[in-house]
């Protein structure tokens, strides 16, 4: 019962001390669409030029192969989307906009296919290298419109503790 009426003081921790334990993660690498056609914010291709932010993290050949797989899906899916968009715009007045639903569904299907591909690439290769690829919607630099970009995020390194 000695410490029953003792007064204990809280010690304040300086915010600078907390920051030393946090590992800093670089900003994600953004790959914007490089095609000449965009349907609902999704460009018809992405650039295969190797970004400088990925040097010493991934081989340029692996990066190029992944982007070529993405471009393959876009090359297969987007021409169909454009045809449906054209037909939907022609019939838009008569159908009160309902003729655009097939284009919206096809666009969602394309996004889903790209997300599935990126999930597979992440689990197969990139998560092991400390990277995570994902399709993200961002505002365009030149206007207030939205576009889909590929974000390559850096995963924080988690220390592995081994019991003695």
TrEMBL record:
Annotated transmembrane regions: 84-104
UniProt KW Transmembrane helix keyword: yes
Keyword tags: Membrane, Transmembrane, Transmembrane helix
Subcellular location: Membrane
InterPro entries in alphabetical order: CHIC1/2 (IPR039735), Golgin_A_7/ERF4 (IPR019383)
Ranges of residues in domain Golgin subfamily A member 7/ERF4: 44-133
Keyword Repressor tagged: no
Pfam family, one: Erf4
Protein name: Golgin subfamily A member 7/ERF4 domain-containing protein
Lineage of the species this protein comes from: Eukaryota, Metazoa, Ecdysozoa, Arthropoda, Hexapoda
């Amino acid at each position: 019962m000695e410490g029953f009426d003792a007064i204990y003081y809280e010690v304040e921790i300086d915010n600078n001390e907390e920051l030393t334990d946090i590992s800093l993660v670089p900003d994600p690498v953004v790959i914007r669409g490089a095609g000449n056609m965009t349907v609902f914010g999704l460009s018809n291709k992405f650039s295969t030029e190797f970004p400088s932010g990925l040097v010493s993290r991934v081989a340029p050949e692996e990066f190029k192969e992944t982007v070529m797989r993405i471009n393959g899906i876009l090359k297969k899916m987007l021409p169909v989307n454009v045809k449906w968009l054209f037909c939907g715009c022609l019939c838009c007045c008569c159908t009160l906009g309902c003729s655009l639903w097939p284009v919206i569904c096809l666009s969602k299907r394309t996004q889903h296919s790209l997300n599935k591909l990126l999930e597979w690439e992440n689990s197969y290769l990139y998560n092991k290298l400390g990277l995570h690829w994902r399709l993200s919607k961002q505002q365009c630099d030149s206007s207030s419109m939205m576009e889909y970009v590929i974000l390559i995020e850096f995963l924080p390194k988690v220390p592995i503790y081994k019991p003695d």
